[in-house]
Amino acid sequence: MTTLDRRKFLKVAGAGGAATAVAACDQPTAPAVHEAMPNLSWRMTSSFPKSLDTIYGAAETFARVVREMTDGRFQIQVFAGGELVGGLQAADSVTDGTVEMAHTASYYYWGKDPTFAIPTCIPFGLNCRMQNAWMYDGGGIDLVNKFYAGYNIYGLPGGNTGAQMGGWFRREINAAEDWKGLKIRIAGFGGAILSRLGAVPQQIAGGDIYPALEKGTIDAAEWVGPYDDEKLGFHRVARYYYYPGWWEGQAMLHFFINLEKWNSLPKAYQAIIRAAAKTADTTMMAGYDMQNPGAIRRLARAGAILRPFSEEVLDACFKASNDAYAELTANNANFKTIYEAMTAVRAEGYLWFQLSEQTMDTYMMIQQRKDAL
Amino acid sequence: MTTLDRRKFLKVAGAGGAATAVAACDQPTAPAVHEAMPNLSWRMTSSFPKSLDTIYGAAETFARVVREMTDGRFQIQVFAGGELVGGLQAADSVTDGTVEMAHTASYYYWGKDPTFAIPTCIPFGLNCRMQNAWMYDGGGIDLVNKFYAGYNIYGLPGGNTGAQMGGWFRREINAAEDWKGLKIRIAGFGGAILSRLGAVPQQIAGGDIYPALEKGTIDAAEWVGPYDDEKLGFHRVARYYYYPGWWEGQAMLHFFINLEKWNSLPKAYQAIIRAAAKTADTTMMAGYDMQNPGAIRRLARAGAILRPFSEEVLDACFKASNDAYAELTANNANFKTIYEAMTAVRAEGYLWFQLSEQTMDTYMMIQQRKDAL
After folding, report:
1. A176 by DSSP, 3-state: which?
2. CB atoms within 10 A of CB B229
3. What residues of A are in contact with residue B36 (Cβ under 8 Å)?
4. Is domain A38-160+250-289 classified as CATH 3.40.190.170?
5. pLDDT tens per residue, range A264-312
6. Interface A-B: count of C-beta contacts within 8 A
7. Domain positions in chain A
8. What is the average pLDDT value for chain B, to the nearest integer?
């Protein structure tokens, strides 16, 4: 029986519990058939290479947890970016059903519609705690899925990097004017904002960034944060490591599932997928938070010069971002709806987080600098 | 068939798949029997009242998600604190098997051994992100379970409040001396540290705090944070709302499972419980982060006076905490092992979090104060 035949069979048998029981008794040597937990085999394309073990690993965690929870009945095979389809074709391959699902960054698809950027992050958006609050308790998942449905996609949060670094620069950024003419490797929507400041965003694949920085073909490059950046060795060819990464105050990845495939799943499998996605989401963030501290220490020891963007520089970037949002909300109803839901969480969140969270962290950071921890 | 009989039956039938299939065919009207996914019915006692909907709700979320993922085969009935056993007897009732599991705060049991406090929180410990990093990626869960095993318990993280507030005070705390003689309602290990500063910790149940504050029987009371505190109306009888809640920079709840019951579960059910616990953990934190902002606005409008503890006051509290930790690590090997694992995460974490996370949040908080969000 082919996989397709079996699925058709299950669909029929699944209509009634009694029919299933009879079928199982008629074929005592066949594997048990459970209408609520059928045998399924899916393919998931990741947008990421295996070398980004924390990010790519979130897809593998998801697949493993689904397999364990279903006692092996629901198998999901993970493919790295490029193995089945290119990393940036992940959404299209879910929309058209080439694969059942993908693990990707929604903002890769902002060229189709800038609204795709918001569920990942937009410059000066939310921090990780607020993003989770919005998604898991504030209706964010349902709201975003009204938009994704237009692309035949059901999306669930599936990992986070936390606040990224602002990237590696061959020269200092001391004033807003210093962005002008700066050739910077940056992916996605953040580059569109930087171009409003006069920078010249470059789209360069991960493996090609180092030589471009070394030769001076580009002046700067943003990638992720210490743990991933260290592997590519950027500190050897661009000494200034700027922060904060204001275009990615957090970056939430998503599992994109073909909407018809999602709707055809038994309720138990939908629940299992939701919990597996939360597992991937939580453990990827935990992974970065465990790995980044050691990496930043090693990078600083190896000569990286840590530099904060000044408030004046950030003010110019914030203004450029808000100008872009004003235009987008005026012209794009989807963007407006989701943007305004996000900013409502942001305004409230940054009031509350000033109190215990920020003052406690600040006090502990003072102790860290005193070497008292 | 009683529940006990059914479990015995399942245990026997579960020994071989073929036996199960035959049993199912012999009884076509009985529910299907799956050796990997048996019908189970458990009881979970919560340490919390239903009125703490965010905390108590995490146990209900857990039970619902387990039920959904198993298509109703694994049922867990949740009981509020006091319905089956008292809130502070939850751990004992898991140890002796009175219930299969509990939802509780590990630090309630610090009187048995102060080591119980660390997996929840100890003063000047970790923030929520670091606690998750330690637990989910840094080996924290396994390390803590070596300790819990001595109490016949398997523990999994199951919810967080984030950084709590420092509580409601009838008079100001302007210097470390002001703690002396202060009668403050505070639960658990934090009270032991406060008593080193000269405060007089009081153990008072939630419903009795308001009248005690009103009459002046106590001078101060800590509960949780804005969302829960608002319901009890403390702002009407103690105006000063202090922060940060340095004894609870985060507070992680746990699901405690009877160790034999845990070990007897099929692997698929163990995986389901792990994912359901992560779901409860993530969604409880998200719930507080969505609900606290509105509550703090309302409390401030209703007359609460927000007051930060000064750095001098915090320095005295930090010293008192460290003095206690020095004594405990000298005398308690379990405490020493887990404390040192935690502080290793803390020292590294507070280095890294100073960069993008803190500077991004700080910039956004400045915009919030400018009313620019």
Report:
1. helix
2. 25
3. 71
4. yes
5. 999 999 999 999 999 999 999 999 999 999 999 999 999 999 999 999 9
6. 291
7. 38-160+250-289
8. 91
